[in-house]
Every structure is written in structure tokens, then in C-alpha cells.
Amino acid sequence: MCGSPHNADFVALAVGRIPEAVPILVRITSPSGSVFNAVAIDNALKRHAGTVTVWTCGIAASAGSDVAMADDDIVMPENALPRAP
Description:
Blueprint: H1 8-16, E1 24-30, H2 35-47, E2 52-60, H3 63-69, E3 73-75
Parallel strand pairs: 1-2, 2-3
Helix pairs in contact: 1-2, 2-3
């Protein structure tokens, strides 16, 4: 859910409960945040055996960009930040 203020513990627990074959869609809007939380969230998503798609809703800056850029599929509207390659 765009704008949810969930931390790495919440995300890791939620991802761990998703069956391996089920794809995950992450919607992110983050102006910044803790790099430690971003790394932990990214690692939790990478451990998931299924496909992980990250959709940047508006902005994924600073630590948020670490989560937005490191998964199987990355979706960014043309006006999202950081700019899609």
C-alpha cells in the first residue's frame, strides 16, 4: 500500500508468510528513510523464491531507491523519481 510506514521487521515477517510460488507486488513511495531498514527489506524480498515486482508510485529517494531498484521487475511511471532508465 502506497504510503504505509512499515519497517523492516514488519516487511520481513509479511514476506516470510507468502508461499514461495506466489509473486509479490511492492508499491513504494519513500522520500528517504533508514538505509539499514532498506537493506533489510531488500534482503527479505530477495529471499522470496517467487517473482518480486516493485512499482514506484511517486518517489523512491535515498534509502527507498535501494528497495525500488533491486528486485526482479521494476515499474516506474514516466514521472516517478528516480527516473526510469
